[in-house]
Amino acid sequence: MADGSGPSIELDNDLDKLFLGEELPPLEWIPDPDRFLLTITQVAIKKKIGTLILPDQTVADQQWNHGLGLVVKVGPSVYQGQRFKDMGLDESHAPKVGDLVLFQAKTPNRLDVALPSGGWRLFLQIADDAILGRVKREHMHRVKFQVG
Question: Does domain 32-142 have CATH number 2.30.33.40?
Fold first, then answer.
């Protein structure tokens, strides 16, 4: 995975483990974010609780503005500017491609990207200040995210 050395990553192979066989588009099909935006795709979206299958609207609501996401692209100005300097942060603290992040975005941009076999995959573009924290992959099964 990403080791902080740059955007050359092995997302195609590692994503299969994370998404449990869900199909993903090639990375180059996903639009590059501009300025301070990150492009993420959500992971660990609940579709069932016990034997109950959640309605499509409930699943869609989880995809809209909060949750656990995988960073797939990073804009050129992420974690730059005075507000981050005032907090003691700079580009070296920015999320990297391949990081799992907890996020809560007020107004994410939704991008539906075509899949090679047909259909679509949802990606979100969020501002850098929507990141609440990072999750290590080995601890992903221990994290639940709720708003309120």
Answer: yes
